[in-house]
Amino acid sequence: MGDKPLRVLACGDVEGRINALFNRVNAIQKKSGQFDLLLCVGEFFGTTSEAEAEWEAYKSGAKKAPIHTYILGAASQETVKYFPNSDGCELAENITCLGRRGVFTGASGLQIAYVSGREAQQEPAPSHCFTFKDITALAAPLLSNSKFRGVDILLSSQWPRGETDTKFCGVSSIADLADKLKPRYHFAGLEAVHYERLPYRNHVVLQENAQHYLYAFNIVPMKNMDPAELVKQPQDVTENPYRKPMKDGKKEKPPPSMADAEEEPPSQFFFDLGEKKPQHQQRQQGRKRHTDGDRPNYPKQPRKPRKYIYLHAFRSPRWSNGFNWTIFITLSQPTGPCWFCLASPEVEKHLVISIGTHCYMALAKGGLTPDHVLLLPIGHYQSVVDLASEVVEEMEKYKSAVKKFCKSRGRRCVLFERNYRSQHLQLQVVPVPMEKCSTEDIKEAFMTQAEEQQMELMEIPAHTDLKQIAPPGTPYFYVELDTGDKLFYRIKKNFPLQFGREVLASEALLNIPMRADWRECKSTKGEEEDQAKQVRSDFEPFDFAVDD
């Protein structure tokens, strides 16, 4: 394949939902073209009779995986029966188990190191576990090569214990392996958290030669890349989270055995389909800051309302050199903690209503009405005018679906966006009962209140592209009514952050002025879960993502 970037999909715990996984892959490939391979970390097989029946169809040849799929070995005693050879083998057409540990090198030169299972605390280790000897046997041949620069991808069932953001979770042996092998990507699985971190250096500044960084887009195998490309520094880079502080210019030596230290049960890094309750929910703390608007006040490790498959593709329109930076998932990265990137540990997934390929729908925190929702891009985009074409296309599908949903319930659909003092696009969707007011009443209310605050809210043609009047970076407020009419205001300064809510909550419309500020409308997590469950059920007949 030369230096042509490989297109890769990655997925976390499938837990036996193999049909759902490959249906999702087919939908993505239909929209985005063919991918070269699919990597699965975490538990691929399930423990129920239904999961066993699903697998039997692929094992017998009645069904075939639509993409070359590589999975890790067993991570629990219950799934050992699915793996006839712990050293790896083809389990079904297009589905290959990599094995207990090793290095897989593809025809393109792509090098994937892998470690399956959980760390064993004793010898001999169960067949679903790895030991310190496995880690040593994997790393030694690579490190003994004087030309070794690192591996392209590291796959592990468990995640690494770091010195900072993962200090309470994971195992030190995987952290030490990641430090030594210098992977450009690292994917891990097993529990119930969907997490990504900033890129980190694989060298110590001014004390070691520059090494490549981690990034997450298209991947050109390292052997085909110019060394200078590998050491370019991405934005927001951090120090290596798996190395202890330097003393007198030397790295502090690890303990004799990486398995000696007492470890806590892991949470996990990647995409999952389960509804497990991680034991360290409270510990995955990220930075918080107060903000205005209807942001979900997300804690870090939520429980999923239902099982989703999150598939991420390594690709980006912004970088052409194939250099990759983040571990665990592959989405555009905000400049700081983001409450709306689906990849972020800040996201409280019990509010999620629907997940598409590029966008998702979530219940608004402190909503004006019980069915007040947000439409958001999965990746990090600040506003509608910043969206890539494929994201715009799916956002329009969500808008169409939610308008039909509102109409079926006798409500007018009002959408608005405030691109001001926010870092991630939130398209607010507020259903307004038809008997309350007409579309003209809603338009007049926005116009009147804007005029009262010396703001010139312009009416723009229904089919006008916002990019024509608001180039990326322009602060603005935008409203879209159920008739397709659009109102636009280019924000200059001191824009009232709750303006959209204040208009809709006014006596002329919903007549709930006490709910104008989302912070005054807080509910308990249990109430939010019940509310989200109801909206999810009501919206399902209109949810195209379910069909995909």
Question: What would you note in describing this structure?
Answer:
- By secondary structure, this protein is of the alpha/beta class.
- It has 2 domains: 234 residues, Purple Acid Phosphatase, chain A, domain 2 (4-Layer Sandwich); 194 residues, HIT family, subunit A, CATH 3.30.428.10.
- The strands form 4 sheets. Strands 13-14-15-17-16-19-20-18 form an 8-stranded antiparallel β-sheet, with helices on both faces. The chain has a 6-stranded mixed β-sheet with strand order 4-5-3-2-1-12, with no helix packed on it.
- Helix 3 runs parallel beside helix 4.
- The longest helix has 20 residues.
- The chain is elongated.
- The chain starts with 7 loop residues before the first strand and ends with a helix.
- About 19% of the residues have low confidence.
Task: Return residue spans where pLDDT drops below 50 for at least 5 consecutive residues.
Answer: 202-218, 246-310, 312-335
Q: Return Rg in Å.
A: 25 Å
Strand order of the largest sheet: 13-14-15-17-16-19-20-18
Total strands: 20
> Biggest β-sheet: count, sense, barrel?
8 strands, antiparallel
Helix content: 10-25%
User: DSSP strand (E) fraction?
Assistant: 15-25%
Architecture per CATH nomenclature, i.e. the level-2 architecture of the largest domain: 4-Layer Sandwich
Q: What overall form do the CA principal axes indicate? A: elongated
Distance N terminus to C terminus? 31 Å
Domain count: the total is 2
Arithmetic mean pLDDT: 76
